[in-house]
Amino acid sequence: MISRVAWLPVLLLPLCWGAAFCETSKSLVLIIRSAPQRPIIEVRGGNEFLNFEMLVRNASGLTLRISQIELSVYDSSAHDLVMRKSINTDAFAPSIAVIGKQILAPGETLDVFNPFSEFESSLPLTELQYSFCLLRESNEQQREKNQHRLPDDCDFRQQFAVSPRTYEDKTPLILPLRGKIFVWEGHDSYAHHLRVPLGDPKVQALGISANSNNFASDFIYLDAQGREYHDDPRKLDNWYSYGQPIYAPGAGIVLATANDIPENWFEDAGATKIGHPQLPAGKDPKDIGNFVLIDHQNGEYSLLVHMKPGSIIVKRGDRVEPGQPVGRIGFAGDSIFPHLHYSFMDGAEVFKAWGLPVYFSQFRRVLGASSTKVEHGPVDSGDFLESDAVYSDAR
């Protein structure tokens, strides 16, 4: 699969605005990578969400500080400005701090997650302009001076355009588990699924060029008291999720499976230390354990991972229908406890494909004694859900 990631070199515009020195655009260049190149606008609850990374590489010989990021939203037809907002260094708790590290050493790349992620559905998001305010900070004198500068006082300002896109899912999907389930983690603003530091050398060394999990969910079962297991967690059968059946969420062809990856284990009664099996070189290279990959034959793919070894009852080439059993929940691969991890992707290769927004059908959000029926919609971290779909082994 060809990754939808592109390096976009952009020259810096020298706007000295009271700065003592000003480099020309020829001597100071940033390279920005938007990942994915055209982010998907997710619609949920009447709002639009836009989550993506901007990888900012310092190609200069200077140390730079990102002191402000400004977003301008334009109407695509008339090119009228319809919204502008920014994060900056103003006040005691500067809003720019939400991006994490702000200093760029020469040659360094920072992963800047889009700080403007939620919008009203009426706002057009087809033409976005990001502006980075950059300060020199190569020595202690410059660092001290920068602490007293106003947000718009930039040594350099770079503009970077992003053109998001909408996406309509093609595959009718049902929840891959039945009964009352809990979304332990989805892809909310602070969920670990949402972010992969693609500019990190360690991530690149693993061959990861895309985040196939950016719309993923982890599903588990809990008891009435909200507990994940009873008694000693070192016995996997004591986990309420372990061994529970997993179902095909949509129709398609099984593209690949793994069914012989040994499981992890807990080394203490507090379930705080995990043991991992030593695998032969090349075994489970993605560290996802036992899995089923389904090709929905329309450019969309479902990946179900961390399954119980020996439990997978489908094989490559099998046709599956929604609600058909495919295996059971296990504790293999990069997993911290028994659960089902589900990813919906635009390609078949993990770490090369990008995740797609997931909208399940025929389920209810359980709210204690009551519930809310959802005909077609996303799920969130913390939700209790119960499917109304038909599962072929339901008794």
In short, what is this structure?
It contains two helices and 27 strands.
Segments where pLDDT lies below 50 for 5+ residues? 1-26
The helix fraction, in percent, is under 10%
Beta-strand content: 35-45%
Number of helices: 2
**Largest sheet, described in full?**
10 strands, antiparallel
Taking the alpha carbons of the first and last residues, their distance comes to 41 Å
| Radius of gyration based on Cα positions | 24 Å
On the 0 to 100 scale, the average pLDDT is 91
* Spatial order of the strands forming the largest sheet: 22-17-20-21-24-15-14-27-25-26
What structural category arises from helix and sheet content?
A: mainly beta
Order of helices and strands: EEEEEEEEEEEHEEEHEEEEEEEEEEEEE
- Principal-axes geometry comes out as globular
Number of strands: 27
Question: How would you characterize the overall build of this protein?
Answer:
With 395 residues, the chain is mainly β. It has 2 helices and 27 strands. It has helices at residues 140-146, 201-205, and strands at residues 6-11, 29-35, 40-44, 47-50, 53-58, 64-74, 81-87, 103-104, 109-113, 118-120, 127-136, 156-162, 165-166, 180-185, 217-220, 245-247, 252-258, 265-266, 274-275, 290-295, 301-307, 319-320, 325-328, 340-345, 360-367, 370-377, 384-387. The strands form 6 sheets. A 10-stranded antiparallel β-sheet has the order 22-17-20-21-24-15-14-27-25-26, with no helix packed on it. Strands 6, 7, 8, 11 and 12 form a 5-stranded antiparallel β-sheet that branches. A 4-stranded antiparallel β-sheet has the order 1-2-5-9, with no helix packed on it. A hairpin with a 2-residue loop joins strand 25 and strand 26. The longest helix is centred in the middle third of the chain and has 7 residues, at 140-146.
